[in-house]
Amino acid sequence: MAMVEKLIKNRDLQLSSTARKRIEMLLDEASFVEIGAFHESGGKAAEVITGYGTVYGMPVYVFAQNPEIDGGAMSVAHAAKISAIYDLAFKTGSPVVGIFDSIGARLDDGMGVLSALSDLLLKSNNLSGVVPQIAVLSGVCAASSAMLATASDILVMTEDAELFLNPPFNSVKGNSGSAYDAVKNGTAHILSESDEDAMQKVRQLLSMLPDNNISPVMPTEPVLPEGGCPYCDLIDAGSDVVFGDGFGEFATTAMARINGASCGVVNCKTGEDGLLDGDSCSKITRFVRFCDAFSIPVVTLADVAGFAEDDGSELKTAVALSHAYSEATTVKISVITERAYGPAFVALCGKAANADLVLAFPHSIVSPVDPITAASVVYSERIAAGESREELEREYITEKASAFAAARVGAVDDIILPKEIRTKVACALSMLSSKRVETLPKKHSNMPL
Question: Which domain holds residue 179?
Answer without folding.
Answer: 2-205
